[in-house]
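--- STAGE predict ---
source: upstream dedup step, 1 unique chain passed
mode: sequence only
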Amino acid sequence: MKFIQPSVEFLNIRIDEPITTATDLILAAVCFYAFYRINQQENTGRVKGYFKYYFLTLGMGALFGGLFGHAFLYTLSPPWKLVSWIFTLASVAIIGFALSELSRPLIGSAISRTVARINLVIMFFALFYTMWTLAFSAVKYYTIFGMVVVVGFLSFVVFQKTRDRGAIVLIFGIAVGLLSAMVFSYEWGLGPWFNHNDISHVILSFSALSLYKGAVLILEAPVNLL
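--- STAGE serialize ---
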């Protein structure tokens, strides 16, 4: 059942979907914290760069999603939702690059480059469709594809060949994210003040924490695994 969240006023400012906005901002805060902490890592390789910019772009997507897509959309036009969605698409592509780079010594440079290029092409198709239709569906399906097929599969390969704990933690984070996608798709909510958007954002925050922990474990692994 889809629950419609009432608006509230704060300091004479109308805020639509206030809990949805707040949970989006919580997700953004988790991502920005992950970006900051990963940026402090001594490792300076490409994998670190991809991981930290994954969290930065995902955090920007959540931030603008809360502000432009929910709280103040009534003052804007629908295309403003694209700001959040474009950042989200970029974040999925970036973490795909991280796993392609991480797995390159294990699967070979040619396969790694091919996976990265396919991921990028599909992302651009999703971006074009999203901008053309202003529909969220392509963002959702590309996110599932990128996180499960690309990141999930390559994480499994890394774990199978190296037994790196970080890879299995990434897989766990992806599984938690899939639960969020189910909640959102089937609109499972507890009521107007904690609807499917709110629940999915909370679950995504836990997913982001797990992905952050996995990234840190990978970056702290012996250099020959990176």
